[in-house]
Amino acid sequence: MRIFVTDGIPFSLDDTLSCGQVFRWKKDEEGWWRGIAHDRLIKIRQVDNRLEYLGCNEDFLVYYFNLDLDLDEVLAGIDRDEYMHKAIEKHRGLRLLRQNPWECLLTYLCAQNANIPFIDRMLNNLSDKYGETITSEFGCAKSYPRPEKLADVGKEEIELCSLGYRSTYVSHTADMIAGDPKWAEKLFAADYETARQSILHYEGIGPKVADCILLFGFQKYMSFPVDRWVDRIMYKYYNVGDPERALSNSEYNRIRKFGQDYFGEYAGYAQEYLFADRQML
Predict the structure, then answer these.
(1) What number of CA atoms fall less than 13 Å from residue 150's CA on the CB side?
(2) Domain with CATH 3.30.310.260 in the chain
(3) What pLDDT shows up at residue 241?
(4) Adjacent-strand bridge partners of 35
(5) Any idea which architecture 2-68 has in CATH?
(6) What pTM did the predictor assign?
């Protein structure tokens, strides 16, 4: 077992892994989280100011959990009102992960109109059938399937993994990505708006899914995803949007741009802290 001391580094493992940004992570009764990230099987828990972990080295731990980001500076920049202040105080230490771009994209293609257990089931079905075996010092698991594999098996086979209509999106998008090895590199290099327009060309990716992928998979922190919870929060506390009406593209963009203008370059962090504290509604 390896140990990383978090003295002086605000970090909450539970808030980070349970806030809805990532799937295929589970916590056991002894406080250990076990999950798949970047083709690694990782086991980790937080005990006071220590992270105890297996399955990766310290460099990867710092990278994936974004522990080299000055979170205090980020939070100071978005702490602009009493609602955000309360969310920060309650969830301080929540960090946006540096997810693998393809793992993140596949996740959010599956996450449309689905609850968390169903999302987990779809991802686990795909991984069990088409992923590769990952061996760690504490066990084995299946990786996320490669885009090339999903492009090869086709829509009908993918549909058998409980994806329903999402199988078309996954099959076609996997085929596009398999044919463009530098797709992620190009999105990383692009500014937020350019990357957003590019990723919207993939089948099945609409405004919210695009913003989720850019925020969680590409660290485009200007991204401000709006779902029904964020719509309700922004209406109640910031007087923008209207959850009683359908969230049209124009309404989505109005809320998104308000969040970006109001919270600034780390609007995505503001969104995630507000979402994490959605029970305040």
Answers:
(1) 33
(2) 2-68
(3) 85
(4) 25, 42
(5) 2-Layer Sandwich (3.30)
(6) 0.95
